[in-house]
């Protein structure tokens, strides 16, 4: 039975010896968002329209420069390639925006729940204060009681302190 000279074990998976391209998803996502944002601007549409007009004019008028004759197959290929890359990049940018919106919605929901709990707590505290104030003697109540006492004292006859002799 021949022996393995490479020192590789058969019960272990092979290591990845191929060229591996490491792409940071956030960096790629930011790049795609920037590109998708640019594709939706008037500046991009202007330059694309200008390139198409120059392309068509040169291919129709300049006989020596006709690299893409009338049906403009190469131009159609360029547009197809652009669309094939633009659509997924725009979808990727939308997905990242959806993720940000979802996080923002969760934060808003948590903030609203906390605000509701704080409001309910303050409402309970306010109700407790109202009950406590209802049991406290107010200035008007004390004034009315003192007035009533004064009236009671003024109605009763005064007893003199000097003994009367009989």
Could you explain how this protein is built, in words?
The protein has one domain. Helix content is 69%, strand content 0%. It is built from four helices and no strands. Helix 1 crosses helix 3. The radius of gyration is 45 Å and the shape is elongated.
Offer a concise description of the structure.
This protein is mostly helical. The chain has helices at residues 25-39, 42-61, 73-135, 139-155.
- Largest beta-sheet details: none
Separation of termini?
Answer: 151 Å
- The total count of helices amounts to 4
The poorly predicted ranges are: none
Principal-axis shape: elongated
Count the strands? 0
Overall helicity: 55-70%
Helix-strand topology string: HHHH
Total domain count: 1
Mean of the pLDDT scores? 82
- Assembly form of the protein: single chain
* Beta-strand percent range: under 5%
- How much is the radius of gyration in Å? 45 Å
Helix/sheet category: mainly alpha
């Amino acid at each position: 039975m021949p022996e393995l000279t490479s020192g590789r074990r058969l019960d272990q998976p092979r290591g990845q010896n191929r060229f591996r391209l490491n792409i940071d998803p956030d960096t790629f996502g930011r790049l795609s968002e920037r590109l998708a944002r640019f594709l939706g601007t008037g500046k991009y549409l202007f330059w694309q329209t200008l390139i198409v007009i120059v392309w068509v004019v040169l291919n129709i008028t300049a006989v020596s420069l006709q690299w893409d004759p009338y049906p403009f197959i190469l131009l159609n290929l360029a547009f197809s390639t652009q669309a094939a890359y633009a659509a997924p990049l725009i979808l990727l940018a939308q997905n990242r925006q959806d993720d940000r919106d979802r996080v923002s919605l969760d934060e808003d929901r948590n903030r609203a729940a906390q605000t509701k709990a704080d409001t309910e707590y303050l409402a309970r505290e306010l109700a407790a204060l109202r009950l406590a104030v209802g049991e406290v003697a107010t200035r008007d109540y004390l004034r009315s009681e003192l007035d009533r006492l004064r009236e009671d004292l003024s109605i009763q006859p005064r007893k003199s302190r000097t003994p009367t002799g009989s």
